[in-house]
């Protein structure tokens, strides 16, 4: 599952990738004509809207691609870099860049392309950029307040508008298509050409616009892998086919005391609940995250026996079903909930003196087991647990 | 010597699709978008640290940057990416016969005016890109791809203001009427 950095591709190799995608980026910009200042500025005087066409097409292509990859479960959107929103600095910074665009005729990326193809004005713009950045760094205390004000974090456009990701994608495609038509008409008018719409052109362009629209619509209609999985499991539970192997508390306690290394005890509650109490040697994989590839690697294996437990028996049995859904492993659901396990082995103090011999024996065993499990838990706390990869958001942007 | 004529530019929609594909690939592989201004920032910071190390240590901005980038300013993803951009643009220019030393400017504009304009505009853009945390590539384009609110409003601000002030700078770009 993407992004491939840093788990599949190392950070060092990432620099080589940067160079390669940079070459693609530069090639595309130059081919589009972005190394020419006249072509860029044409956007603002209406004689050449190439920039808008390239820019919007690129944005829509990538946007639709992200929507599709997310839908197929190939890209984890929750960890890709989202430019954070600092309201005032975004607006004021953007405004200053707008001035820079009109006066200088480039933006930083395009000026690099212009300089690379021998444009002296591009080189001058680059020099200017460096001066501007230097001025920002030197005077930083003066605009620090504005720079850091109204920090909203990585907010998303469609959340702000109260829409779904896919719905907003559709709107953007329609806006882009409308802009393409309108700017063609404006461009022709300013260049003194007549706008003619030939039938083949209309058909061709309609197909081009319909393709991304259709793709996003298919994404909206078809369920994700996760939804398919949930549905199948729900159906099985409804049909009474949910009968995972159940492991008793005493059995688990005994096994942990004697051969804990043969068991994968998995706590499917939230990390907060896990933090408060968990069975020694247990690892935490919340139920909602079980289907992610990082977690599946731990669960789907044939060396250890999985024992799932949660806040109630529904949770542990469902976890068992999820594991069964993805692969063949030896799965058990713990008979006890986390709370019950805690009570039964760690919170008992007094032995009921009036109990039968058998009852007293069990009580003694449980107290003993509690102590032993604690010891084992402490001993293996730092060595034997699989390292759970905590996926953190990728850092990016221009800072 | 026979010099071939520069070839025509690529169809803008095709170029856009290609660019979008590169951006998507970047997001899929690295989890982040493309950028440009960040590389220039690295150059500025590295230069200051080399030329005036004591100044860099005593100035908040550089000191903060050093703390958050212990590997050094130049060992940054964007530096390598922009290096690629320069190579890619050059290769594309060579392939299409568009590499030549020249100064592009609006009709009737003096060379010195164009150069000063480019430097001033560059300085504004450089400054704005730092305040806005990214330029047209890193903030506007990449932000649009991942539907970031900050990226999209920065994009609207860049193009909105450019349109608003375009009239006042028209002598730099189009013929006087």
TrEMBL record, chain A:
CDD domains (alphabetical): RHOD (cd00158)
InterPro entries: Rhodanese-like_dom (IPR001763), Rhodanese-like_dom_sf (IPR036873), Sulf_transp_TsuA/YedE (IPR007272)
Keywords annotated in UniProt: Membrane, Transmembrane, Transmembrane helix
Provenance organism: Plebeiibacterium sediminum
Domain Rhodanese: 259-345
Stretches that traverse the bilayer: 12-29, 50-74, 86-108, 120-137, 167-186, 207-224
Gene3D superfamilies: Rhodanese-like domain
Protein name: Rhodanese-like domain-containing protein
TrEMBL record, chain B:
Pfam families named among the record's database cross-references: Sulf_transp (PF04143)
Membrane topology: Multi-pass membrane protein
Location relative to the cell: Cell inner membrane
CC per GO annotation: plasma membrane
This protein's record includes keyword Cell membrane: yes
Keyword terms of this UniProt record: Cell inner membrane, Cell membrane, Membrane, Transmembrane, Transmembrane helix, Transport
Similarity annotation: Belongs to the TsuA/YedE (TC 9.B.102) family.
Protein name, entry field: YeeE/YedE family protein
Organism: Plebeiibacterium sediminum
């Amino acid at each position: 599952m993407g992004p491939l950095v840093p788990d599949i591709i190392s950070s060092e190799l990432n620099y080589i990738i940067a160079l390669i995608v940079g070459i693609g980026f530069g090639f595309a910009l130059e081919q589009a004509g972005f190394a020419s200042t006249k072509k860029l500025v044409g956007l603002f005087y209406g004689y050449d809207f190439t920039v808008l066409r390239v820019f919007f097409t690129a944005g829509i292509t990538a946007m639709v691609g992200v929507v599709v990859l997310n839908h197929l479960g190939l890209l984890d959107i929750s960890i890709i870099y989202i430019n954070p929103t600092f309201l005032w600095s975004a607006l004021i910074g953007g405004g200053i860049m707008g001035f820079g665009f009109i006066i200088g005729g480039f933006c930083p990326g395009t000026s690099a392309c212009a300089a690379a193809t021998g444009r002296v004005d591009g080189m001058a713009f680059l020099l200017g950029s460096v001066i501007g950045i230097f001025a920002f760094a030197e005077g930083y205390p003066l605009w620090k307040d504005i720079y850091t004000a109204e920090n909203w974090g990585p907010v998303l456009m469609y959340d702000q508008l109260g829409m779904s990701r896919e719905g907003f994608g559709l709107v953007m495609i329609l806006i882009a298509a409308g802009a393409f038509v309108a700017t063609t008409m404006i461009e022709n008018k300013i260049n003194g050409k007549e706008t003619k719409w030939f039938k083949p052109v209309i058909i061709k362009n309609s197909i081009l616009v319909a393709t991304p629209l259709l793709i996003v619509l298919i994404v909206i209609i078809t369920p994700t892998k996760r939804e398919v999985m949930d549905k199948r499991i729900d159906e099985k539970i409804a049909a009474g086919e949910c009968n995972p192997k159940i492991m008793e508390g005493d059995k688990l306690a005994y096994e942990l005391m004697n051969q804990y290394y043969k068991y994968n005890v998995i706590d499917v509650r939230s990390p907060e609940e896990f933090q408060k109490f968990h069975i020694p040697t247990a690892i935490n994989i919340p139920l909602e995250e079980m289907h992610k590839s990082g977690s599946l690697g731990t669960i789907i294996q044939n060396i250890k026996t999985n024992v799932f437990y949660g806040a109630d028996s529904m949770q542990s049995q469902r976890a068992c079903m999820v594991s069964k859904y993805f692969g063949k492993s030896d799965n058990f659901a713990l008979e006890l909930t986390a709370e019950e396990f805690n009570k039964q082995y760690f919170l008992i103090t007094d032995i009921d003196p009036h109990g039968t011999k058998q009852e007293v024996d069990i009580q003694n065993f449980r107290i003993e087991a509690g102590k032993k499990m604690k010891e084992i838990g402490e001993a293996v706390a730092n060595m034997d647990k699989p390292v759970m990869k905590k996926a953190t958001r990728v850092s990016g942007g221009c800072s | 010597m026979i010099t071939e004529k520069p070839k025509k530019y690529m169809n803008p929609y095709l170029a856009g699709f290609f660019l979008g594909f590169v951006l998507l690939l970047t997001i899929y592989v690295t989890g982040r978008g493309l950028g440009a201004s960040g590389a220039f920032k690295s150059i500025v910071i590295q230069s200051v640290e080399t030329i005036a190390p004591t100044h860099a240590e005593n100035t908040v901005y550089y000191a903060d940057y050093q703390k958050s980038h212990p590997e050094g300013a130049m060992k940054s993803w964007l530096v390598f990416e922009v290096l690629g951009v320069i190579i890619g643009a050059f290769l594309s220019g060579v392939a299409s016969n568009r590499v030549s030393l020249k100064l592009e400017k609006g009709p009737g504009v003096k060379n010195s005016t164009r150069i000063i304009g480019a430097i001033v505009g560059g300085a504004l853009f450089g400054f704005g890109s730092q305040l806005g945390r990214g330029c047209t590539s890193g903030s506007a384009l990449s932000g649009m791809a991942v539907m970031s609110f900050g990226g999209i409003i920065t994009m609207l601000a860049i193009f909105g203001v450019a349109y608003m002030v375009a009239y006042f700078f028209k002598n730099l770009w189009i013929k006087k009427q």
